[in-house]
What does this fold into?
Amino acid sequence: QLQLVESGGGLVQPGGSLRLSCVASGIALDYYAIGWFRQVPGKAREEVGCISSDRGNTKYADSVKGRFTISRDNAKNTAYLQMSGLKPEDTAVYYCAARNHASWYCPSEYHYWGQGTQVTVSS
It folds into this structure.
């Protein structure tokens, strides 16, 4: 059974940076696509972006394009979400998700989810 644990969240000032990590255990991530999502209470969950298992292709929501970068290190069974130029509207609980999807593109659904990590952008 694949388990995902996010870390790296916290309080940061506007314009600052954070790097979130998503560490997987139980199964090697090599053939898994990884998605990053965020959710604010009372609002729908938003997909921030994803990285494919094959070729490491990435895709981003327009709201974060140019500011966020998703990467992965299969040797460490870990995916990352590097966030820079943070804005107050980026405040949310951030989740990583995974799906066994051996492809160069990201899936539309994910089967495994982490517990989330809080990111707060405020001065």
Remarks:
- The longest strand covers residues 92-100.
